[in-house]
Design a protein that fits this description.
Blueprint lengths: L1 H19 L2 E9 L18 E2 H13 L5 E6 L15 H9 L2 E10 L7 H12 L2 E5 L16 E6 L7 H21 L5 E6 L4 E2 L22 H9 L6 H4 L50 H4 L15 H6 L1 H45 L1
Parallel strand pairs: 2-4, 3-6, 3-7, 5-6
Antiparallel strand pairs: 1-4, 1-7, 1-8
């Protein structure tokens, strides 16, 4: 028995040493629509590091259900878990996460080398499962995503430039990239979007806190969150946006947050809404009558016999073709002016010639 316990202790020490010596990168994904049972089947708490294989499998399970009309994969080189403690850098992303029905965060994805999510493999998986059409955003321009002309789902790969090292330019870059994501999302005709936010760079793994938050640790009223919990929410390296993902107690339950077109009422399905409150309105059963007007002005094209308009001087026709009409009128006036000017010049030449001829004749008579 002692030997077994000793082996378990040695194995645990080796596992911890292996994790501490490994590299890590952060990522998170969320879906506007509920992905049933995705969170319920996570291998462990999101506050515990994931292996790259676990994180990839989770995304593949989400993708295989094809619940979204667009999949946005954001690759932000240089992203670290510290960047995700800067809530001011992600205003739109956080708004989208708040409205999402399913959120899965990977504060630490453990990898023994510099390998991160294989974006080409993700693209192939989505093409095979959901028949997506791929667009790439390579130059920070939302116009690289063309308008929709069909109903196929889209995969939009947003390849962002690396983050600067200095703090202020780095925060500004995060804001600019967040605004780009906002402009891309607003071009999409459907709100059913899935976003995977990740990076292709790794950093050294840092040990986080020694405990995990459980459901019982979260107060029902957010105003009852303690100061230490608030501080932990702001600076923890084991969580991503914990004010949304952990300290919002509703996130511990799985339900669709974005039912569209559904009527939310307490009426029994067999009860007509018009009968609510004991009022029975049967006027809708009465036979309806309709008076049909047959006057001559209604049987023609909306015109009386004495109000016929010529299509040539029709106001709407003239307004619709205003540039053409203006060009024709201008041309006619130009031709008229040109001919009048020619006539004036000819008359002037004739008068000058007659005067000159008369002058010559007078001079000859004098001689």
């Amino acid at each position: 028995m002692k030997m077994i316990l000793l082996k378990l202790v040695i194995a645990s020490v080796l596992l911890v040493t292996r994790i501490e010596a490994a590299n890590t990168f952060p990522a998170f994904l969320f879906s506007h629509k509920l992905v049933p049972s995705l969170r319920a089947n996570l291998p462990h708490s999101e506050q515990v590091p994931f292996t790259l294989a676990e994180a990839t499998e989770i995304f593949n399970r989400l993708a295989e259900q094809c619940l979204s009309n667009a999949y946005i994969v954001v690759n932000q080189p240089g992203l670290t878990i510290q960047d995700l403690t800067n809530f001011q850098g992600y205003p739109f992303t956080r708004d989208m996460m708040t409205a999402a029905s399913t959120i899965v965060t990977f504060p630490n994805v453990i990898t023994e080398d510099s390998t991160t999510f294989n974006l080409d493999s993700i693209e192939s998986h989505l093409k095979q499962s959901c028949h997506v059409k791929t667009h790439q955003v390579l130059y920070n321009d939302e116009n690289e995503v063309p308008p929709y002309i069909d109903t196929r789902p889209r995969l939009i790969k947003v390849m962002l430039p690396a983050l600067p090292e200095e703090e202020i330019p780095r925060t500004q870059a995060l804001l600019d990239h967040d605004f780009l994501l906002k402009k891309i999302a607003r071009k999409l005709p459907s709100p059913y979007i899935t976003v995977l936010y990740t990076t292709d760079t790794v950093s050294e793994f840092k040990e986080g806190r020694s405990f995990e938050y459980s459901f019982e640790d979260i107060p029902d009223d957010p105003r009852m969150i303690t100061t230490s919990q608030m501080k932990d929410a702001l600076y923890s390296y084991d969580t991503i946006f914990p004010d949304i993902t952990i300290f919002d107690k509703s996130r511990w339950f799985e339900y669709e947050r974005n039912d569209m077109g559904e009527l939310d009422n307490d009426l029994d399905s067999s009860v007509w809404a018009k009968d609510e409150g004991g009022r029975v309105d049967d006027t809708w059963l009465e036979k309806k009558t309709k008076e049909i007007l047959t006057e001559r002005k209604y049987t023609r094209f909306g015109e009386n016999d004495d109000m016929l308009d010529s299509s040539i001087i029709n106001k709407d026709l003239l307004l619709e073709n205003a540039p053409l009409v203006f060009g024709i009128v201008l041309t006619v006036f130009a031709l008229i002016a040109y001919n009048i000017l020619r006539l004036i010049l000819r008359c002037a030449v004739v008068v000058w010639r007659l005067g000159f001829k008369a002058k010559v004749n007078n001079e000859k008579k004098v001689q």
